[in-house]
Every structure is written in structure tokens, then in C-alpha cells.
Design goal:
The complex is a heterodimer of chains A (265) and B (422). Chain A is of the alpha/beta class. Chain A has 12 helices and 9 strands. Chain A has one domain: Aldolase class I (TIM Barrel), CATH 3.20.20. In chain A, helix 3 packs across helix 11 and helix 10 runs parallel beside helix 12. Chain B has 2 domains: 158 residues, Rossmann fold (3-Layer(aba) Sandwich), CATH 3.40.50; 213 residues, Rossmann fold, CATH 3.40.50. Chain B is globular. Classes of the chains: A alpha/beta (265), B alpha/beta (422). Chains A and B meet through helix 3, helix 5 and strand 6 of A and helix 1, helix 8 and strand 11 of B. The structure holds pyridoxal-5'-phosphate (PLP). Chain A: GO terms for molecular function: tryptophan synthase activity.
């Protein structure tokens, strides 16, 4: 099921969609599934399951810490697919967020087949650009998977058009120039980027990087179709005293964010 | 020196810029594309700008001391290389002690041309960091160097050198705490500060245009050496040998010889404890194709595409990736890549010190060890040109421990306190 279904539902309810990220395998493979299910129960509309990678150059310290721990505990691509299967079974569109090399190594064709079989909606690829994605786009299309690429404040209008042309499901707009992590303010650049992106596509545009609380979610919901939250959820788990505490904290945050995207301050 | 002439190998069948056959490309966040495009554009225009060229030529000559000589090492040849004639291209005689300065002077001039005031760089052995800090001081640029925490310990002297030159050294404590993680952290800085900052990449890896840009700035090594060998011997060498970390000194000396198909090209990778041990940095000899740090190339990876940590006594070769042009030269059979383990490199290091009075960088000692093997294969009288990419001042501590010259040092090959202890 394409993520666009969830965006359409949100649109029909005159609100933005809430997209929640967590890397597979943290605090454990089963533990991450529990957290993701709690996030879904509390109102997350679209799930991104991160594929832990040894060289996550788009990620800040919070996600790096969780991913390193997941890798040390042995989390691998098969665990990611199992995680997707468990979360997708809730009926929530579930995508994988992955750097390119693990997919390259697994085999793009095999990966897209196994992901589709697990009920996955598609893949967000932060380190490939459509210009260099010929190894990915045809195989993803053949499995009817969403292909989500990123646009950034530094993207030219021409590049934005090229990127949205290759996107299916939604477009990921990076709010600021930088890596993942919570920030006090969502960059001013985000609204402008969303406006420039919308000129090129009818696809939903979701904003990520730096959103961590309900007020920020409400602010972004004013100008975007979706609000993407990652580090703030991971932070809940890093700060938790126990896995159960983490599930509770992430669920609570999801609830607050979910009311945020409905508030539209 | 920056040559705008395109080499045929550079273009894939599809003819895309920045590809070497299937290798190279740009596997990076979209946020970096504007900066990479800007760098590429400026470089293309600088390459045909006589004013830029003459400023760079002037610096290479009056500041770095180019051209570097070629030295015939007769005693080493007789005692250590089966009587083959070994000729050393003396990049160790450059200002700052290695070939890294060739690249950095060009990129610092480019930074100024673009109008940015801050440079960042990654460093492993510290040589590229020192070179970058040097050029930044010369041109009045702010300079931040990312260095794996592990490397700041084994190359403490170079950390002090960078700080003396006014650079800020940031120890990187994520991942394996070595060069690959320093590159990740530098890329994160670049994504965040790209408006003010240029990334002075240290080798021929990374996203396009770095493999081409750095190669063209290092090409001068081979251009000079080819002429020097012709003058000295009246003929081209039988073989050219270089050590390969990311591959910049190797591509620098290879490139002028690529069309000379009678000249064999050999890249020597770090074999660490031996390829069979799994503790090595022999990316082409023992790795597989994939994507790391923005380019498709050979790398050390596990079955799930996670990068495997490399190991080498030489911090400058301790990298699990390699430049994409080398992957291509290997695939098409134009260059051959072989591992040299720590012990072989250190033996060649000792031999050059004792026979010629030249202390090489441990990185370069891998090329010397390779030349010894080539000498045995090619026989007496064969001419082997070796790129002596750097001098060994920075390695005196490591070597003293290896050879048991310091009290705290263990037996050779054991806990040397400098190699790949983790
Ligand atoms: C003296 C010397 N040689 C070689 C290298 C390896 O780099 P490359 O393979 O890019 O020449 C280094 C890196 O620090 C170095 O300092």
C-alpha cells in the first residue's frame, strides 16, 4: 500500500500526516516493533523503519548512537524486513529508510521483491539522487514500491523538478541544511522549499529534520502535507530506563505530535 | 598542471561525467549536490584559466619545491631488489613531507576562487590534515580537521603540527574512530555549513568531482617522473609502483603512463596482519564493489553491506575504500593491485633507511616492498619507478616501537602501540 493513501486520508481530514521514524533493532528487534506499534496506536500515519548502517552520514549523534547499538547487537537486513512485516500488518503504510550500500549488497531486485512480500510500501533513499538511481528506479517500479527522494533548501528549481519526477508516494523535504537531530526551531527555509516543491508535483510533501514537539508539528502542518519525526522518538528510547518505559514515552510523544498535526497553529 | 584533457577511461559507455566504467558517481544527500556542482564548475573554469594555472605553478615551485627529483637508489637495488634498477620519485621532499600538498594547494586556491573562507578536511595519518592546515595558513582560511580519535593517538605529533599551524583538530569518536568515520563527520559538517565552507578532500575517492579533481592535481607527479626517467635512462620504466590508500599518490604517478601500455602499473595495498587474517586494508585485492563515501568502488564490506574496519600499521593506508578510477583500472587489467603486509613493509622501510639514508613514510614503504617483489619477478636491469609518497619523520615513533628501539615497545608485530590495537 502506497504511503500516499495515508496522506490522502489526512488531507480529507484537513490535517497533515504524521510520519514516524525508528531504526530497526533498537533497543532490540522485537523491542523496536513494540515501540513502532505503540507509535501507530497513538496516531502515527506512516512509518519509516531505518536500516542500521555503519556509515550514516546524514544522521546526527542521536540516531548514530541507536544505530551503532543495533549493529553491535547484530541487527541486519533480514531483521529490517521482519520489522516492516510486523508493522505493516497493522495496516499502516511502512517504508524502509536506507542508505544505498546495504540495498546494493542485498541486491536491489531481491530487496524490492522481499520488501513487497513483507507488505512494505517503499523506500526512502537519503544518499541517492535520481540522476544516479538507475539501479533502483526500474526495480522499485516493477514491485510498485514508493520511491522517496529528498529535496533540500540548496536544491535548484530544476533539481527539485527532476527529483519529484522520480518520487512516488511522497516527497521528503529536508527542513534545513544539516543532519538529523532535534532542533529548537524548524528552519525558515522549510516553508519556501515546500512551496517550490509543490510547483513541480501533485505528490504530498512532508518535512523532516529537526521536528521534535507538538508545537513544531503544528507549525509545519500549516504549510506541509506531512511532518516527519525521527530523532525525538529515538531520544525517548535512549533516555528510557527500560524497554517498557521507552514504549510508553514514544507512544506519548506520538500522541502529542498527532494532536499537533491536527492543531495547525 | 591541472589538466583539462579528458582521459578516455574517465567516461563510461553511457558517457556520464565522474564515472569510471561502473564506478564513481555521486551517492550523496541532495543537500550536497549544489556544492559539488559549484566545485565542479569552478574547477572546470580554473583548469582553462591561465592566471589560476600560473598561480598554482608558482606555489608548487616556490613554496613546495617542485619539481621533486628522481633518485636512483643503487644500494637498495642491489641489496633489496634483486638487481632491478629502482628509481624513487621523491614526493617526500615536498614541503610538509608528502604528495598531499600538491592537491591541497590547488583546492585552497579553488576555495578562494569560490569565495569561501573556511575549509574542512579529514585526515588519517595526519599528512593531509597538515597539508590542509598549511595551505589554510598560507591563504588566511579558517581550518577544521576531522581525525579519528584512534588516529589522534597514534599520530600525536601531526595533531600538534596542525594546531601549531592554527587549525582546529576535532577527534571523531564514532564508529571505528578512524579515517572512515572522520570522513563521515567532515561530510556532516559540510552539509551543515556548505554556504561558508569548502571540503578539501584528501584523496581520489568520494563523490564526483573529487576523484577527477584530486587526480588532476596529483597528475604532476607522473608528468614530471615520466620525463625524468626518460632523461635518466633513455627509455620508459618497465614498471611503476605506488602504495594505495585512497589512491591519490598512485593515480598521480600512474596517470601519465596509462597510455604507455608497455609500462606495468602496480598498486600496493596495506595487507595488515595478512589478507587471510581478515585484518587488512586490501580493498581491491580482497574487497568487493559497493558504495562508500559517495562513490561506487571496491570496499571492505560484510554480506549485508556494512563497512568492515580496516587494519594497517600505516594510518594513511588504513581505509576500507579506494578511489573509483583504481577499481576501473583493475577491472580492465590496466593496473594490478596486490597486498603488502605490515612485516614486509617494515622490512622495506628498514632496508631503505640502511642502504640509502632515506627514511620513508610507512605508507611509501609498502610501495618499496612491492618493488622488491617486482625486482625478483622482472629480474636484473629492469627499471622500476617507485613513488616515494612521503617521508617518515611522522613514523619514527611507530618504527622505533616496531624494531624494539623503545623501552615500552614490544616485539615486532606484537602490541606495538602504534598499529591496529583497538
Ligand atoms: C605519505 C603518504 N602516502 C600515501 C598516503 C595514502 O593516500 P593516497 O592513497 O591517497 O595516496 C598517505 C595518506 O595519508 C600518506 O601520508
Amino acid at each position: 500500500m502506497s504511503a500516499s493513501v495515508a496522506f490522502e486520508r489526512a488531507r480529507s481530514e484537513e490535517r497533515a500526516a504524521l510520519v514516524g521514524y525508528l531504526p530497526a533493532g533498537y533497543p532490540s528487534v522485537a523491542g523496536a516493533v513494540d515501540v513502532l506499534k505503540a507509535m501507530v496506536d497513538a496516531g502515527v500515519d506512516v512509518v519509516e523503519v531505518g536500516l542500521p548502517y555503519s556509515d550514516p552520514l546524514m544522521d546526527g549523534p542521536v540516531i548514530q548512537t541507536a544505530v551503532e547499538a543495533a549493529l553491535r547487537a547484530g541487527a541486519n537486513t533480514t531483521d529490517v524486513l521482519r520489522t516492516v512485516e510486523a508493522v505493516a500488518a497493522t495496516g499502516t503504510p511502512t517504508l524502509v529508510m536506507s542508505y544505498w550500500n546495504p540495498i546494493d549488497r542485498y541486491g536491489p531486485e531481491r530487496f524490492s521483491r522481499d520488501l513487497a512480500a513483507a507488505g512494505g510500501a517503499g523506500v526512502i533513499t537519503p544518499d541517492i539522487i535520481p540522476d544516479d538511481a538507475e539501479e533502483w528506479l526500474p526495480v522499485a517500479r516493477s514491485q510498485d514500491l514508493d520511491t522517496v527522494f529528498l529535496v533540500a533548501p540548496s536544491s535548484t528549481d530544476k533539481r527539485i523538478a527532476l527529483t519529484t519526477e522520480a518520487c512516488r508516494g511522497f516527497v521528503y523535504a529536508a527542513s534545513t541544511m544539516g543532519v538529523t537531530g532535534t532542533r529548537d526551531q524548524v528552519g525558515d527555509a522549510a516553508a519556501d522549499l515546500v512551496a517550490r516543491t509543490r510547483k513541480t508535483t501533485a505528490l504530498p510533501v512532508a518535512v523532516g529534520l529537526g521536528v521534535s514537539n507538538a508545537d513544531q508539528a503544528a507549525e509545519v502542518a500549516n504549510f506541509a502535507d506531512g511532518v516527519i519525526v525521527g530523532s525525538a522518538f529515538v531520544r525517548c528510547l535512549l533516555d528510557a530506563d527500560s524497554p517498557a518505559d521507552g514504549v510508553r514515552a514514544a507512544g506519548e510523544l506520538a500522541g502529542q505530535l498527532s494532536s499537533g498535526v491536527r492543531r495547525q497553529a | 598542471m591541472v589538466s583539462s584533457t579528458r582521459h578516455p577511461q574517465q567516461d563510461s559507455p553511457a558517457g556520464r561525467p565522474g564515472r569510471f566504467g561502473p564506478y564513481g558517481g555521486r551517492y550523496v544527500p541532495e543537500a550536497l549536490i549544489a556544492a559539488l556542482d559549484e566545485l565542479d564548475r569552478e574547477y572546470q573554469s580554473a583548469a582553462v584559466d591561465p592566471a589560476f594555472q600560473s598561480e598554482l605553478d608558482g606555489l608548487l615551485k616556490s613554496y613546495s619545491g617542485r619539481p621533486t627529483p628522481v633518485t636512483e637508489v643503487a644500494r637498495f637495488s642491489a641489496e633489496a631488489a634483486s638487481g632491478a634498477r629502482v628509481l624513487l620519485k621523491r614526493e617526500d621532499l615536498n614541503h610538509t613531507g608528502s604528495h598531499k600538498i600538491n592537491n591541497v594547494l590547488g583546492q585552497a586556491l579553488l576555495t578562494r576562487r569560490i569565495g569561501k573562507k573556511r575549509v574542512i578536511a579529514e585526515t588519517g595519518a595526519g599528512q593531509h590534515g597538515v597539508a590542509t592546515a598549511t595551505a589554510a595558513a598560507l591563504m588566511g582560511l579558517e581550518c577544521v580537521i576531522y581525525m579519528g580519535e584512534e588516529d589522534t593517538r597514534r599520530q600525536a605529533l601531526n595533531v600538534a603540527r596542525m594546531e601549531l599551524l592554527g587549525a582546529t583538530v576535532v577527534p571523531v569518536s564514532t564508529g571505528s574512530k578512524t579515517l572512515k568515520d572522520a570522513i563521515n563527520e567532515a561530510l556532516r559538517d559540510w552539509v551543515t555549513n556548505v554556504d561558508t565552507t569548502n571540503y578539501v578532500f584528501g584523496t581520489v575517492a568520494g563523490p564526483h568531482p573529487f576523484p577527477t579533481l584530486v587526480r588532476d592535481l596529483q597528475r604532476i607527479i607522473g608528468v614530471e617522473a615520466r620525463q625524468q626517467v626518460l632523461e635518466l635512462t633513455g627509455a620508459l620504466p618497465d614498471a611503476v609502483a605506488a602504495c594505495v590508500g585512497g589512491g591519490s599518490n598512485a593515480i598521480g604517478i600512474f596517470h601519465a603512463f596509462v597510455e604507455d601500455t608497455d609500462v606495468a602499473l602496480y598498486g600496493f595495498e596495506a595487507g595488515g596482519d595478512g589478507v587471510a587474517s581478515g585484518r587488512h586494508a586490501s580493498t581491491i585485492s580482497a574487497g568487493s564493489p559497493g558504495v562508500l563515501h559517495g562513490a561506487r568502488s571496491y570496499l571492505l564490506q560484510d554480506e549485508f553491506g556494512q563497512t568492515i574496519e580496516s587494519h594497517s600499521i600505516s594510518a594513511g593506508l588504513d581505509y576500507p575504500g579506494v578511489g573509483p578510477e583504481h577499481s576501473w583500472l583493475s577491472d580492465i587489467g590496466r593496473a594490478v593491485y596486490e597486498p603488502i603486509d605490515d612485516a614486509e613493509a617494515m622490512e622495506a622501510f628498514r632496508l631503505l633507511c640502511r642502504t640509502e639514508g632515506i627514511i620513508p613514510a610507512i605508507e611509501s614503504a609498502h610501495a618499496l616492498a612491492g618493488a622488491r617483489k617486482l625486482g625478483a619477478r622482472l629480474g636484473e636491469g629492469a627499471v622500476i619507478l617507485v613513488n616515494l609518497s612521503g617521508r617518515g619523520d611522522k613514523d619514527v615513533d611507530t618504527a622505533a616501537r616496531w624494531f624494539g628501539l623503545l623501552d615500552s615497545g614490544g616485539a615486532p608485530g606484537s602490541d606495538s602501540g602504534t598499529g591496529d590495537e583497538k
